[in-house]
Every structure is written in C-alpha cells, then in structure tokens.
Amino acid sequence: MAKLKLRKKQSRRKGREKHVPREPFELMDAQGRQVCMEKVCELQYGISLAVKEGEMPRAERLATILYRSKAAALLAVHRVVTSPGSRSPGWSQPRTRPTTNREYEILLQDVGTAIRNPKDYKPNPLYRTYLEKPGSNKLRPIFVPSYLDRYLQAVFLMAFEPYAEHVAAYD
User: Fold this and answer.
1) d(Cα 30, Cα 20) in Å, to the nearest integer?
2) Is-contact 88 145, C-beta < 8 A?
3) Which of 36, 58, 61, 158 has the greatest number of beta carbons closer than 10 A?
C-alpha cells in the first residue's frame, strides 16, 4: 500500500502553509486487487462446493477463513469506497468519506478487531438524513450506516454469497 506524501505549498500570504497531496490517493493497485480477488474467489468456490456436497461444517470453516482474511477486508473496503453510495455521509466522525491511506488503515484495523472479537462489537446507530422527493417539496428520510458497518456488511456478504446462490439455484 502506497503512503500518501504531503508537501508544503507556500501561500501568497506569509506564514500560511497548505498541505497538498503529492500523488492521487489509491487504496491498492490493480495487481494487488487481482491477488486478493484470486484468494477470495478460491475460498468462495470451496464454500460453494462444500454446500453442494452437503458438508456444512467444512463450508462454515471456509467461510470463517474467508471473512477473517486480510484479502477479504481489503476487497470489502475497495468495494464500499468505489460504489456510488460511498459519497453519502456515514455516521463516522467526521461525516466525510476517509481519503488518506492512514484513515483506511485505521478502518481496516477496526474491521479486523470487529471480526476477531464479535462479542465486543456494537454496531453504530444509523445516521438519519432527509432527501427531497422528486416532483414535490416533501422530504423522505433515509438511514445511512457508518463506514465500519458498511465494510463489515461487505465482508460477510462475500462469505455468505456462495451459500445463498446455491440455495437460490436449487430451491
């Protein structure tokens, strides 16, 4: 993971300095994403085979390995960050999308902590905001989960998807 390097830019006024990113922020490169995808897809394929053969304990073990893996956490963060819904405000303080490598590393540590200690994890309350209905002046409420909760949902979706697809296909 590349670190975000900041350089000082002198403003026209003396004594004031601005920090400007030297390079664009990128969570992981295409090659790293491909390696993570291969690991996750291999585990998902194993889960689907175990479910197909009726070996649920093996499927549960593979799902546990999957959602505890660093590759799944990285892909979940990438999935949430690159989705169009990531621009909505989360309940995280401050209510802005994380933008630096350090903020993402902190979120990845929080995801890992929540997965390793599920009994200690308490989901954050949903952030309620209002949007204007199209064609009228009325407002409708929407509820937005925190960024950490979005990441956890994406990680567990990766582990649950192969089982759900098998059940939906054969029932």
Assistant:
1) 25
2) no
3) 158
Q: Is the bond preceding 94 in cis, omega lying within 30 degrees of 0?
A: yes
- What is the CA angle 170-66-50, rounded to 5? 35
Residue 141 three-state SS: strand
List pLDDT tens digits, range 27-73. Answer: 677 888 888 899 999 999 999 999 999 999 999 999 999 988 888 98
Q: From CA 87, how far away is CA 80, in angstroms rounded?
A: 10
The pLDDT tens digits of the residues spanning 111-126 come to 888 888 888 888 888 8
Taking each helix axis from N to C end, the angle separating 30-52 and 147-170, rounded to the nearest 10 degrees, works out to 40
Beta bridge partners of residue 21, listed in sequence order = 6
